[in-house]
Amino acid sequence: MRKNSVKNTRVNGEVQRVLAEIIRGEIKDPRISPWTSVVAVEVAPDLKSCKAWISVLGGEETREATLQGLKSAEGFIKRKLASTINLRNTPDITFVMDQSIEYGVNMSHKIDEVISRESGSRVDGE
Predict the structure, then answer these.
(1) What average pLDDT values come out for the chain (126 residues) when binned by 10 residues?
(2) Total structural domains within the chain
(3) Which of 35, 37, 82, 85 could cysteine-pair with 57, CB 3.0–4.6 Å?
């Protein structure tokens, strides 16, 4: 299976959907934030490994605790994934913290600040 084949794209989407369901509804670890989302998943063409990018809303401590909780639940997640998705091999999952959503929110706030300062100075200058 080629890296960008239709089959690989479908497998990535299905694994992402199932991972999100498992994290949201089946893991009872209190370290894992309820504001955790699976942003993207990339399953290797040989189906032996998988990178899952996750985003967690909260501070650095919340992100670290969630990552530790997910790493400790890897075996449970892999079993649930194997029982839900019928693949030749069940991939080993590596969780990677994705901070693009947080970066986007930060940039949006900065843009809003600049716009409010600009509109405030125009009113004063008139």
Answers:
(1) 76 93 91 91 92 89 93 93 89 89 83 87 53
(2) 1
(3) 35
